[in-house]
Amino acid sequence: MKLRLAFCLFFLVSSVQSQTLRIGLAEDPDILDPSLARTFVGRIVFNSLCDKLFDLDEKLAIVPQLATGYEWSADQKALVVKLRGGVTFHDGEKMDAAAVKFNLERHKNIPGSNRRGELAPVASIDVLDAQTVRLNLAAPFAPLLAVLTDRAGMMVSPKAASAAGEKFGAAPVCSGPFRFVERVAQDRIVVERYAGYWNKGAINFERIVYTPIVDATVRLANLRSGQLDFIERLAPSDVPNLKSDSRFRIAKIVEIGYQGITINIGKSEQAQKNPLGKDARVREAFELSLDRGAIVQVAMDGEAEIGNQWVAPDNSWYAKNMPIPKRDVAKAKALLAAAGVANPSFTLMTPTTSDAQRIAQVVQSMAKEAGFDVKIQSTEFATSLNLADKGQYDAYMLAWSGRADPDGNLFSFHACKQPLNYAGFCKPETDELINRSRSTNDPAARRKIFEQIADTIGKERPVIYLFHRHWLWAHSAKLTGLRTVPDGLVRVQGLKMN
């Protein structure tokens, strides 16, 4: 009898574990409110909690999710979106056109919203009927559909959001496949399957536990020991060994973002105390001192694609008129001599992550050969963002996870006085080009404009783009159905444990 009971208990525990997907994250997300959030790992968690109006497929094509279709007006200043019927939020409330209007207005107006800029061209929202909503634009806005594939397109329960107010992010209520259960800061986020999900046939787990583990070595150790089923951002140096272990699989995707060095050229008065900030010739010399291919091999174990723009060279929006420059130390020294700066010295602010540290050290060594004295300042990530926002830095090693439309990698970083323009770069002619690229839906016309933008930014160098990382995922060989979408986000639909 005792043996039978023990067997039953073991079977029950094993069954519960098999119904739980355990995911290791590289950081702890910030607030779980789509309007206020700004971290990459938060977007991973949101993909189980909050469906969006549209999503992306493996080729970055925009596909319907909560929407079923759309139509632009003839003047491109209105977008009519048809909604999926029968969708409910986790509190049982209907996800209809009125809810979409509430959410888009909340994204635009809630204090501290990080979606406000993304939806700035949306002047008003009209409910045409229960399943149809119209977005009225102040001017044509080509990136709008892509914007709605991310947090700006996520829908939360109007009833729950209104009741919780500023505390909503502590217990979000959305319309995704899983509902929020609990969060313990720096320890875990737990979500459970929502029985009323519109696409419930694609969901094969009862629960997901997200565990933030900053150290990549510890994340991998937890995967190897069976404490995790999936980890995001496997360390490049661990790829060879894990490949030989048949218990696990590795997935690799070229990111739609970039790794670069942002330079303070006008963010604050400190720019004029910084040799890089004062003279474009010094910035060019700094770029020519760097060998992107060697940086990728040494600092990233080859797990990245070199680049010199906000999109990768194999991206359809890459400006081919501005190819990747080769390292040229002699020319770098000549530029420094022409600028009258023999041994320029500056501080490179770097997040404390191991990959950022390695990149900074390789950059420091390479630049020294051209005469640069680069001092590395290791800074906690959130603190580094605050310092960059205040202009209290010379140069900043910064990675951006990227957006499907190139405007998401460009506008906020290079348009005058935009929130992520840490360089302080501002040229009216560049703003005019960026605005033109946003107002046309003709791909050929947009590509020509991006070539002009690349020419301007490539000469000024407010950001020296280095490479585009490989999103490296490692997971149990028993986990199947994983979709490798270049935004690096884990889609839980279709995942199952065999």
Topology overview:
Layout (H helix, E strand, L loop, with lengths): L1 H17 L1 E6 L14 H10 L4 E3 L5 E3 L2 E6 L5 E6 L13 H13 L12 E8 L2 E6 L6 H4 L10 H7 L13 E7 L3 E6 L13 E6 L3 H9 L5 E3 L6 H5 L4 E7 L3 E6 L11 H4 L1 H9 L3 H9 L3 E3 L22 H11 L5 E7 L2 H15 L4 E7 L1 H10 L4 E6 L6 H8 L13 H12 L3 H18 L2 E14 L2 E2 L15 E2 L1
Parallel strand pairs: 1-10, 1-11, 15-16, 15-17
Antiparallel strand pairs: 2-3, 4-5, 5-7, 6-7, 8-9, 9-10, 11-18, 12-18, 13-17, 13-18, 14-18, 19-20
Please characterize this protein's 3D structure.
With 498 residues, the chain is of the alpha+beta class. It folds into 3 domains: 2-28 and 165-254 and 471-497, D-Maltodextrin-Binding Protein, domain 2 (3-Layer(aba) Sandwich); 50-158, Dipeptide-binding Protein, Domain 1 (Dipeptide-binding Protein, domain 1, Alpha-Beta Complex); 258-470, Dipeptide-binding Protein, domain 3, CATH 3.10.105. It has helices spanning 2-18, 40-49, 97-109, 144-147, 158-164, 216-224, 239-243, 275-278, 280-288, 292-300, 329-339, 354-368, 381-390, 407-414, 428-439, 443-460, and strands at 20-25, 54-56, 62-64, 67-72, 78-83, 122-129, 132-137, 178-184, 188-193, 207-212, 230-232, 248-254, 258-263, 304-306, 345-351, 373-379, 395-400, 463-476, 479-480, 496-497. The strands form 4 sheets. Strands 1, 8, 9, 10, 11, 12, 13, 14, 15, 16, 17 and 18 form a 12-stranded mixed β-sheet that branches. Helix 15 (428-439) packs antiparallel against helix 16. The longest helix has 18 residues, at 443-460. The radius of gyration is 24 Å and the shape is globular.
